[in-house]
TrEMBL record, chains A, B:
Record-linked InterPro entries: Homeodomain-like_sf (IPR009057), HTH_TetR (IPR001647), Tet_transcr_reg_TetR-rel_C_sf (IPR036271), TetR_C (IPR011075)
Matches recorded under Pfam families: TetR_C_13, TetR_N
Residues covered by the HTH tetR-type domain: 1-61
Keyword ATP-binding: no
Protein keywords: DNA-binding, Transcription, Transcription regulation
Source organism (scientific name): Amycolatopsis vancoresmycina DSM 44592
Residues within the DNA-binding region(s): 24-43
An MF annotation (GO) of this entry: DNA binding
Highest taxon of the lineage: Bacteria
Keyword Signal in record: no
Protein's name according to its UniProt entry: TetR family transcriptional regulator
PROSITE patterns xref list: HTH_TETR_2
Length: 185, 185
């Protein structure tokens, strides 16, 4: 792996673990085993490197969501597969956690890839729900955009509950609760 | 207001805005208009001050939840009142946001009041759902503990979506989605 890639990987890990405010350029360089000169050769600064890191994490997240939502089955089965897939629950979401970072939300450029990723996941879930509604599996009156927001919120909030408790059970409960409501339709 | 109270209030504001990692003792002192000596007269350090601040925020949050959940009406009406009450959506939750703070979740003492607050809100919601189930308003098969976790997760995740978008609409959508599922029972 080249130095540029090592810097992006180290930035992804540190942003996930410590957030943007809690990550110094020096910490990224140390984890990447790269010098200061090398970092500034590849990136104008912490912000440019963070943007590259966030974009890479976003791509992986969207690809993973797409894989689960593409599986054969009914809409509810596909959403169940997405919600139940193996996750590092106690680490939380590498994208969602950035919304608690004051320097990310205050900067439109840094916030943009976070917003875009969550918006695309909601849109993808709404598509699946639309298919379920068209197939008569879900009620015709269902507001699929709202329910897609609920499903993503359950994941993001489930991480919050699990991290507070330092165990994954509250995440699993939150997911079970929404799936129980969804499957009784 | 005495200096001690001013320090706790400033710490609460800064923890809400910038988190624990992003808040220095100096920033708290400056916002409180207090000197370093004065802070260390009242508190052993940043951690002790943060604990006092988190406990105060937790009390307010629990009192507000209790007020909404105590209103007359059916279980679903009371939960609707709780979910729809006026909130500073773009600021997020002063307690939930701390779960994204690496120094909070790594320290059992700092994590304890965060966990306890979210656990108590879930327990309170489960009680309301239990009452609705006993009254025949909700199905007998309902897992009320799981659904309580879902409801708190929708709030916490709704903040994530709203902060990513820099507008409150995704929060409102997430809440509408779960209420629609709940009311069709």
């Amino acid at each position: 792996m080249g130095t540029r890639e090592q810097l992006v990987d180290s930035a992804r890990e540190l942003l996930w673990e410590r957030g943007y405010v809690g990550t110094s350029p020096k910490a990224i360089q140390q984890r990447a085993g790269a010098g200061q000169g090398s970092m500034y050769h590849h990136f104008a600064g912490k912000k440019e490197l963070a943007l590259a890191a966030v974009r890479r994490s976003a791509e992986e997240l969207l690809a993973a969501a797409d894989e689960q939502l593409r599986t054969p089955g009914t809409a509810v089965e596909r959403i169940t597969a997405y919600l139940r897939r193996e996750r590092q629950v106690l680490k939380g979401c590498p994208i969602g956690r950035l919304t608690q970072d004051p320097d990310i939300v205050a900067d439109p450029e840094l916030r943009a890839p976070v917003d875009e990723t969550l918006t695309r996941i909601r849109a993808r879930l709404a598509e699946v729900l639309d298919e379920g509604r068209a197939a008569g599996e879900l009620p015709a009156s269902l507001d699929t955009a709202a329910l897609a927001a609920t499903i993503v919120a359950v994941l993001q909030g489930g991480y919050v509950l699990a991290r507070a408790a330092d165990r994954p059970e509250p995440f699993d409960q939150a997911v079970s609760g929404v799936l129980a409501l969804l499957t009784t339709h």
